[in-house]
Design goal:
There is one protein chain. The chain is α/β, with parallel strands linked by helices. It is built from seven helices and twelve strands. Strands 1-2-5-6-7-8-9-10 form an eight-stranded mixed β-sheet. Helix 4 packs parallel to helix 5. The chain is globular, with a radius of gyration of 17 Å.
Amino acid sequence: MATKSSIEWTESTWNPLTGCTKVSPGCKNCYAERMANRLHAMGQPNYKNGFRLTLHPHVLALPLQWRKPQMIFVNSMSDLFHKDVPLPFIHAVFGVMRQASWHVFQILTKRSERLLRVDPLIEWPPNVWMGVSVETSRFTSRIDDLRRTGALTKFISFEPLLGPIQHADLEGIHWAIVGGESGPRSRPVDEAWVVSIRDQCAKASVPFFFKQWGGTRKKTSGRTLLGRIWSELPRSTPVALVR
C-alpha cells in the first residue's frame, strides 16, 4: 500500500531515504524532524537513526507495486540532493521513477546547487516534477538553478513563506505552491506576501496552489485566500490525478 499523505498538493509519499540537516531558515521548525523523532521513540525500524540521514534500499521498489496511478511526493522526510546521498542511489531512485511511468513523482530540494551539478547525469522522465523550496527572497537563486535543469516540469514551493518575495522570476516555471508554517512555534505569514506571489503567478500564467495559512490562522482560515480555494496544478497533470 502507498503511504497516504495529508499534504494538500500530493496523494502519497515515498521515502527511500530519511533524515536531513538544516541549510536555511525554512528548516528551523522542520516538521520532518519532529515526525522522525516521534517515530524513533515509537520504535519504527526505518527511524532507528532518528533524523540522521539514512538510506533505505529495501523501499526503493515500492512504487512499482502501487498499480493505481497517483501523485507521489518523493522523500517528504529528507532531501534527495543532500550532499551525503551517493550519486548511485540518486540514479536508483530515478530508475524506479522511470519504470513506474504511470505515477507522477514530485521532488523538492533546498540544495539546488547539487541538483544543478548532477543534472547532466540525470535522464529526466516526463513523469518527474522537480521543485525547489524558496522561503525568502534571499533564496531565489534556487529558482535560477532549477530553471537550468533538464526537468520537464519545474515547480517552486514558497513554504514556509517567511517574508515578501516581490520579484520572483517565473520564466520556465510550471507551478507554484505557497504555504505558511505549521506546527509548534510556527512563524506567521503575511497575507500581502501570499497575494503578491499569487499576482505574479497570474501575470506569468503559472498555476497557483495555496496550501495553508501559518500559525494559529491555519485553524481559522484553512486554505481560503481572498474568499476562495486555490488548487491549480501544472497543465501536464494527467486528468485522472486531478482531485
